């Protein structure tokens, strides 16, 4: 029997969030807004990655052409 002294398993507390449909609706709106506002994040991050790759290539070229004494 689960949750009894014989099984050695303690029952887990269950918490109910208040708000019901209102909380659900707020979550839907939040996800919708995030989708709209974060829609171009991948493009922005791709641009940043491209710039970082160019900077790294330039740095490596400088380091390769410099003699270390």
Could you characterize what this model shows?
With 69 residues, this protein is an all-alpha fold. The protein is 61% helix and 0% strand. It has two helices and no strands.
Broad shape = elongated
Global mean pLDDT: 84
Beta-strand residue percentage:
under 5%
Instruction: Tell me the structural class.
Output: mainly alpha
Report low-confidence residues grouped into runs of 5 or more. Answer: none
What is the count of DSSP helices, taking H or I runs of 4+ residues? 2
Q: N-to-C SSE series? A: HH
Helical proportion, percent range? 55-70%
Kindly state the number of beta strands. 0
SSE blueprint and pairings:
Blueprint: H1 21-37, H2 41-65
Q: How would you concisely characterize the structure shown here?
A:
This protein is mainly alpha-helical and 69 residues long. The protein has helices at 21-37, 41-65.
Relevant terms:
69 residues; mainly alpha; 2 helices
